[in-house]
Write a structure and sequence with these properties.
The complex is a heterodimer of chains A (95) and B (339). Chain A has 95 residues and is mainly α. Helices cover 55% and strands 0% of the residues of chain A. Chain B has a six-stranded mixed β-sheet. A six-stranded antiparallel beta barrel of chain B has the order 12-15-14-13-16-17. Classes of the chains: A mainly alpha (95), B alpha+beta (339).
């Protein structure tokens, strides 16, 4: 599939806007001492990276459902491996 | 000291499916002691360490005043001192950097102990079964980024849970004159000796940034490789002012990409990434992923097109690449309980 520069730019803007919203949601709901803009799109959420824990997972899942109407279940562990993976999950569920 | 190397594919399989043994020959090892040790590490590193309790570890970037990366250090808190572990390729520069930073400073002593100890790592979904045999408590209690002292063959050894493959990973810090014995024992317990090439593939697959390889030809800043999250916002660390200044300028963003099935050779660093006829970035690193059966890599692209899910092509070959979300794959260990 060949993308035009216009399509690539438009799509990137939409994706970046969604990533920005999810970063702000993460910081707000988990009360993180982090500037949302400093969170990288491919930043891991657990272990290294944001170093979230299992309790954070529950809060994050509720926040995503409240804000985007998208459910994150125990079977979606792979969707929590990075900010981008989580945004993929939200995009996929809303498509 | 490696004795049983096979092929990269077999070593890769061990790291992803069993247990691989990695000799971190040349790893930088330094102790930081004294009443000012914590403050010193909070100045030379991008993350504060005052929250670390004995037995806990964290990673921190060592930066130059201009904000470019010297190395990433794994910092272990051992109670009365800190032990810093540096990736082998970055060890000489990082060691010189730290010794120079401590020179003439009161209240802190930095000592290079790299020649006295050896770092042996075991990584893979079954590596915990081997590591468990060196512990007298359940290995599940050894959390990620922690370390503990064990006695092996009447020798004090530090065992840490760290790693760069996304799989379970442990490292042994053993006196250098005992390393061959421990290596032989780990192999006898089922660990397969692995070289750095297989390790670096796994490292890319789970997007542990590779400072040595991911660049466009020169020094990199944390922003260049997506490690800005390792900058503690409350810390006045070396390089902070320069980075704050750089943030205000437009810069390319790191993205991950996977090549289409037609790409037969790894694109060289610096190969242009394009959309239509417009070059929008350059390849910064590339490896062949046996599990994915594709070339995968990183690129630095213009912010206006930087996002996961973009279809680009490589100038020259015209090969299609698609940006993807890290990690490239889910580690096997994610589905393996620690018991």
């Amino acid at each position: 599939m060949v993308m035009t520069l216009h399509e690539a730019t438009r799509r990137a803007a939409a994706r970046q806007e969604l990533c920005t919203r999810v970063k702000a949601l993460l910081v707000e709901r988990l009360a993180l001492n982090v500037d949302p803009n400093s969170i990288g799109d491919d930043q891991p959420l657990f272990g290294r990276g944001l170093e979230l824990d299992s309790i954070d997972t529950l809060e994050l899942a509720m926040a995503v459902e409240d804000t985007f109407g998208v459910t994150v279940t125990d079977d979606d562990t792979h969707s929590l491996l990075s900010l981008n993976r989580l945004v993929d999950h939200i995009e996929g569920a809303r498509a | 000291m490696t004795t049983h190397r096979t092929t990269t594919d077999k070593e890769y399989a061990a790291l992803r499916q069993g247990a691989g043994l990695v000799d971190y020959d040349g790893a930088g090892l330094l102790t930081v002691t004294g009443p000012e040790a914590t403050a010193f590490l909070g100045r030379v590193g991008t993350r504060g360490v005052d929250f670390l309790l004995e037995g806990q570890s964290t990673s921190s970037l060592l930066l130059r005043e201009d904000g470019t990366i010297v190395a990433e250090a794994l910092i272990h808190c051992r109670g009365t001192d800190y032990l810093l572990e540096i990736w082998p390729d970055q060890a000489p520069a990082a060691t010189a950097h730290l010794l120079a930073a401590a020179d003439g400073r009161t209240g802190v002593t930095v000592e290079d102990i790299g020649t006295r100890f050896t770092v042996l790592g075991i990584e893979g979904p079954t590596s915990f079964k081997i590591a468990q045999q060196y512990l007298d408590f359940p290995i599940a209690s050894l959390s990620y980024r922690s370390c503990t002292a064990v006695t092996w063959a009447q020798t004090p050894v530090m065992l840490s849970r760290t790693g760069v493959t996304g799989e379970y990973g442990y490292k042994f810090l053993v006196p250098a004159d005992q390393a061959a014995s421990l290596r032989a024992e780990l192999i006898a317990r089922g660990a397969v000796e692995c070289g750095r090439e297989a390790l670096d593939i796994c490292r890319m697959e789970v997007r542990f940034a590779n400072h040595e390889s991911e660049h466009t030809g020169g020094p990199v800043t944390p922003y260049d490789i997506g490690l800005q999250w390792m900058l503690d916002p409350d810390l006045d660390h070396t390089g902070r002012k320069a980075l704050d200044g750089r943030r205000r300028h437009a810069h390319r963003s790191p993205v991950c990409w996977i090549a289409g099935p037609g790409l037969e050779a790894a694109p060289a660093r610096g190969t242009a990434v394009a959309v239509e006829d417009a070059a929008v970035g350059t390849v910064t690193h590339c490896v062949w992923s046996p599990r994915l059966g594709r070339f995968i890599g990183t690129a630095a692209v213009d912010q206006g097109v930087a996002a996961s899910g973009q279809d680009f092509h490589l100038e020259g070959s015209g090969a299609a690449v698609r940006t993807v979300s890290a990690p490239f794959l889910t580690a096997t260990s994610l589905g393996v309980p620690l018991d």
